[in-house]
Amino acid sequence: MAITNPFRLILLALALNGCTQPLATVKNVTPRYEVSAATSGESTPTQQSIAEGEKLQRSDPRTAIAKYLSATESALARLRTRPDDAAASRDYNFALGRVFSVIREAQIDAWSQPLTVPGYVITHRKATREIWNPVDYEFTPCDELVVGGMAFHERARRVGLGATLLATRRSALKDFQKQFYRSPHLYYDVTAVAKFEGNRCEIGFQDPLEQKKVTVAGRNVPLAGDFSTAVATFLVREKPEKLGLTRLLHPDAYKDTVLLYRLQPYHPDKIPVLFVHGLQDTSATWMPMFNALLDDPDIRDHYQFWFFTYPTGYPFPYSAALLRHDLDLFDKAFPDHKPIVIVGHSMGGLLTRMMLTDSGKDEMWRYLFNDSPAATPLTAEDRKLLETVFIFGARRDISRAVFLSTPHRGAAMASNWIGKIGTKLVHLPQNLVKAGADMTTAAAETKGAFHLRRMPNSIDTLSPTSSFVVAMNKRPLAAGIPYHQIMGDRGRGDSPNSSDGVVAYSSSHLDGAQSTRIVPSHHNTHQNPEGIEELRRILKRHLRNRS
């Protein structure tokens, strides 16, 4: 059956835009123990214990745990004499991982009280980590999970000692948004290490992002770390990317999804990098870049990553006001945080730019309405709303900005036939519709720059002729905050007449940038390998400048 309705055509086009390779896949596998090639014909005590544990894992789980602990302890004894013994480290990690496999498969309560198995009593070290209690989590060894998908061509990890685990919170976290989490279901990458004293085995749960070393026989050796599995599991189970289109078309239905959030614990000594996505998108779009950056030890050690997500049907100045509000909450919750590096893609770059912009008291308002806020004929409710949108200062908590494929001067697509159809599909919330009607009347009376028939939505505000775009470009960026720009050239190589297919170079270029990089890419420069590499370079430069 032919599709002739133009509204259906645009919906189909938007839907097909998301029908690509999945961002993440997670598959369960059975890990196999590999005997070291250096081992002689006879089995070592470690190998014997692992083999016995594998035989008993289903029939006698507690004895199997004891066998795996025996293997872990004997591997640790080898490491005490040779801390750089790779085979002993591998045996230790495998055996300790199987302890967690058995606990999970047999549904044994190992953490609310000491667990007694033949020859051992298992306890755990109390952690100071926020909202962290092993009782609340289920642990899956990372070697039982194969991670793949578009965002995970390479698994970000650190080779070292310890059993890398996926920790999944058993029950929903209350007030999760107030704690800056995207979901009430938490997913963490942790690393377990075992300490033996007599018949006691103390398990320590380490944050591999915070701790890089573990001590064996007085020597520090690298702590193993997996930095991809928790994020991949979050993407597979929560599917945040599915909200992109529906939040564009029905922003009011998803107003509760406006959120500045983290996927990792907060670290006061690490620089926050804040990612802001663009139109018809979600924070899931950043995952290829996020995973690649986590695979860099220097960046992993010095940065923490945060995300701002929002319904993209809102006019972008309104979304920028929401971001300012959430940044105020962030400052209040973490007053000791280091200055932020903010990174915006596409329309998210416009939100980013507005964080670096001062409206000049009421100068932007006066340009739009040709009058002061008090004299503009608006209801008190609408005036309060619009003042949060059009009267603001540049953020003082931002130290650097990066714009990727950002339409500073608008995007022609927003005003062509595709944009005109798309804008009819966006349903704004009633408070914005009402404010738009009052703005239309006020603008007509005051003869300001606004020429409105209704409250514009996000697509309207991306038009090169949008009053919002014109007003923003009349305001300078804050002095003293360096910024960088990354643009795409879809292959014609005709810069500065180039385009990424959505945003032209002439719109994405700003004078005064510390660096400008054009990468061979369509609009998804933030997922392009060269775009990712450029942000890596910028972040490392930021570290050098600070030091």
Secondary-structure map with pairings?
Elements: H1 6-17, E1 25-28, H2 45-56, H3 61-81, H4 86-105, E2 115-117, E3 120-124, E4 137-141, E5 145-148, E6 157-158, E7 163-169, E8 187-197, E9 200-206, E10 213-216, E11 219-222, E12 225-226, H5 229-238, H6 243-249, E13 259-262, E14 271-276, H7 287-294, H8 297-302, E15 303-309, H9 316-333, E16 340-345, H10 347-355, H11 363-369, H12 380-390, E17 398-404, H13 417-425, H14 430-446, H15 458-461, H16 467-473, E18 483-488, H17 505-508, E19 515-519, H18 529-546
Parallel strand pairs: 3-9, 14-15, 14-16, 16-17, 17-18, 18-19
Antiparallel strand pairs: 1-5, 2-3, 4-7, 6-12, 7-8, 8-9, 10-11, 13-15
Helix pairs in contact: 1-13, 2-3, 3-4, 9-10, 12-14
The side-by-side strand order for the widest beta sheet comes to 13-15-14-16-17-18-19
Number of helices: 18
The total of beta strands comes to 19
Approximately how much helix is present in the residues? 25-40%
Can you say what the CATH homologous superfamily of the largest domain is?
Answer: Alpha/Beta hydrolase fold, catalytic domain
> Between the first and last Cα atoms, what is the distance in angstroms?
64 Å
Content of β-strand: 15-25%
The stretches of 5 or more residues where confidence is low (pLDDT under 50) are: 1-19
**Rounded mean pLDDT score:** 89
| Sheet with the most strands, sense and barrel status | 7 strands, mixed
According to CATH, what is the topology of the largest domain? Rossmann fold
Net shape:
elongated
| CA gyration radius, whole angstroms | 27 Å
CATH class of the largest domain: Alpha Beta
Main structural class:
alpha/beta
